[in-house]
Amino acid sequence: MLSVSSLECRYGKVAAVRGLSLEVNKGELVSLIGANGAGKTTTLKAISGVLPPAGGRVIFEGEDITHASARRILQLGIAHCPEGRRVFPYMTVRENLEMGCFLRHDKPGIAADLKRLFERFPILDERRHQAAGTLSGGEQQMLAISRALMSRPKLVLFDEPSLGLAPNIVEKTFDIIKQIRSEGVTVVMVEQNALAALELSDRAYVMEQGSVTLSGSGRQLLDDPQVQKVYLGG
Amino acid sequence: MKAAFTIAGLVVLATLPWWLDNPYILHVLIVTGIFIIAAISLNLLLGYAGQLSLGHVAFFGIGAYASSLVSLGFDISLLTLKPKPVWMAMLAGIAAAGLCGWLIGRIAFKVRGAYFVIVSISFVEVVRLVAVNWVELTQGPMALNNIPPLSLLGISFLKKPSNYWLVLTVAVISYVLVKRLVQSKAGRAMVALAENEPLARSVGVDVTRTLVLATVVSAAMAGAAGALYAHYIRIVDPDVFLFIYTVTMVIMVVTGGKGTLAGPIIGGLIFGLLPEGLRAFSIKPEIQWIIYGVLMLAVVYFLPAGIVPALKRRLRWLS
Predict the structure, then answer these.
(1) Rounded CA gap, A221 and A121, in Å?
(2) At what angle do helices B113-133 and B86-108 cross, to 10 degrees?
(3) Which of B80, B77, B41 is nearest to B60 (CA)?
C-alpha cells in the first residue's frame, strides 16, 4: 500500500533521514521505533507532505506522492496525527472535528461520521461545545484521533500517540489504535514506548540516525537481544 | 436580546445627525468611523489569521492616494489620466490597496512572527518614501489638494451628515463582510492557522492561499477607509502613512478584543472618541494623553483578552 524507498530529508544542511526504505501493507499496523533524533517524526512528515523530501520516492497505492502537496496526500487517504500540540485549543470539540474533514464536501457523510464518533466517544459528545484546550490530555488525544478519522483515511500516521499521557490513558489510546486497525484502516505509528509499540504491531522498523537498522515482526524484535538491550532496558 | 440590542444601536447611530446638530461632534464621529473600518479590516488579519501587521496604514494610505489621484487626474511622463468620477476613483483605491495586499501577502508570508512584523513596517516606510519623493505624481509634502467629494445618484457628500451616513454604511458593510468571511470555511482555515499552523497544514489547509486571501480582503477594506478619508478631508499628504495611525488601529483592535466581531467597534468607539471626550472637560492636551495612556494600560492589564470577551464572560456569569 505504502512504499518508501531511499528517502532523504534535510532541515537546511542537516540530514535527518538518510536513505530510509520501508513497506506497509494494507491492513497492517507498523511501528517505527528508535531514540530521539533518529528521524522518525521527520519520516512521517515526509510521507504526509508536510515536509517535502530532498530525495527518494514515496509511493501510495501505486501513485507517486513524493512531491505531492499535503492537501493532495490527505485527499488520497493519508491522515497525519502530529505529535505535541494535538488540537486547536480555542475551537470547540465539534469545530475541531469539523476541521478534520476540511477537504470533504459530502455533508450527509460528515454528519453520519460525526454521529458515529460521538457514540464511540461519549465524553466528546458531552463536551462538544467546550473549547478543546480545556479538555484533559487523554480527552485531547481522543479528539485528535477522532479528527484524523473524520477525513475517512485509508492510512493514519500517528506520531508519539502516548507522549505526555497518564499510564492508564496510554493503554486506552493503544486500544483505540488497535480498534481502528481492526476496522480496516492501516496504521503507521512512531513511538518511544518501544515495548508497547512492539507488542501492538504486526511489524516494526528500528531507526537509528536517519535510517533503518533492523526490521521484523513485533514478536521477532521483542525477542531480539540487541533491541532488548537498547530499547527495552533488558 | 442580542438582536434587539443591535437594532437599537443601529437606530441610534442612523438617526444621530437629526438629534445631534453639532458639526464638531459629527466630524469626530466620522473620523472615528473611518478608523473603525480600518480596525475591522486589521482585526481580520490580526485577530483571526493571527498575523500582526504593523504596516496596515500602508493600505489605508494607498487607498487614499489612489482614489484621490484617479478623481483629480494626473499627468506624469509615464501616463496621463483624465479626472474620473469619485465613485470610480474610490473603487480604484480599493482595488489598488487590494492588489498591494496580494503582492505583500505573496512576499511577506514566507516569514512569520517577528520577521513578518519587520517586513510589514518596512513596507509602509517604503510607500511613505515614495509618496514624499515622487513629487510629479503625489506632489510630495505639498500634498494633494482640492480632492472632490463623492457625489452619487445626485447626492453630494459634501456636508457632514451625508458623510456620516456614508461612513456608517461602509462600516456596516465591512462588519457584515468580515462576519460572513470568518464564518465561512476560509475563515475557519484562518482561525485554525492562527491557533496551530502545523496542525492546520496537516488537515489540508492551504496556508499561503488562506493568508493571502485574508491580506487581500483586509487591505482592500483598509483602502476603502482610506478612500473615504481622502474624499472627506479632501487633502492627502504623506503623513497618512505615519506609524501612529497603525498604532491607533492596533489599540482599537486589541483593547476591544481581537478575534471578536464587535471588538474593533467597541475599542474603536472608546479610544477614538476618548481624546475628544476628555477635551470637552477642558482638560489640557498633555493630561488628555496621559489619561488615554493610563486607560489603555488598564484595559490591557485587567482585560488582557479585550473588552468584548470580558463583557461576554460577565453576561454569561449573570445569566
Answers:
(1) 33
(2) 140
(3) B41
B103 located within any domain: yes
Query: What does the alpha-carbon distance between residue A234 and residue B22 come to, in Å, rounded to a whole number?
Result: 86
**Is B50 contained in some domain?**
yes
Given a contact cutoff of 8 angstroms between Cβ atoms, the answer to whether A76 and A63 are in contact is: yes
Distance, C-alpha A77 to centroid of its chain = 13
3-class DSSP state for residue B159? coil
Please state the rounded mean pLDDT for residues B269-280.
84
What value does the mean pLDDT take over residues B225-247?
Answer: 91
A214–chain B nearest CA distance, Å: 29
Name the 3-class secondary structure at B25.
helix
Task: Please tell me the least confidently modeled range out of A199-203, B89-93, B148-152.
Answer: B148-152
Cβ neighbours for B307, distance < 8 A, ≥ 6 positions apart: B255, B256, B257, B263, B266, B267, B270, B299
Helix extents (H) in B84-112: 86-108
User: Contact B231/B93 with Cβ under 8 angstroms?
Assistant: no
Query: Is residue B216 a contact partner of residue B98, using CB atoms and an 8 Å limit?
Result: yes
Q: Which three cell numbers stand for residue B221?
A: 477594506
**Which of B201, B202, B209, B210 is the best mutation test for A, with the most CBs of A within 10 A?**
B202
pLDDT at A234: 58
pTM of the model: 0.86
Q: Does residue B204 sit at the A interface (CB-CB below 8 Å)?
A: yes
User: Is B147 part of the contact surface with chain A (CB cutoff 8 Å)?
Assistant: no
In a domain, residue B60? The reply is yes
Residue range A2-86+153-231 in CATH 3.40.50.300: yes
Cross-strand partners of A214? A206
- Give residue for cell 514515496: A58
Q: Give the separation between CA A189 and CA A161, rounded to whole angstroms.
A: 8
**Across-strand partners of A5?**
A57
Range of the domain at B115: 20-242
Chain B residues in contact with A69 (beta carbon < 8 A): 206
Assigned domain for B133 exists? yes
Here the ipTM equals: 0.83
Which helix (H) or strand (E) element contains residue A158? Answer: strand A155-159
Of B195, B198, B204, nearest to A103 by CB-CB distance is B204
A59 inside 8 A of chain B by CB? no
Query: What letter represents residue B319's amino acid?
Result: S
Starting at the earlier edge strand, list the strands of the sheet with A63-64: A14-24, A2-11, A55-60, A63-64
Structural domains in chain B (count): 1
For chain A, the structural domain boundaries read 2-86+153-231
Provide the grid cell at A53: 523530501
Confidence of residue B313 (pLDDT cuts 50, 70, 90): confident
Give me the half-sphere count of Cα atoms (radius 13 Å) on the Cβ side of residue B107: 11
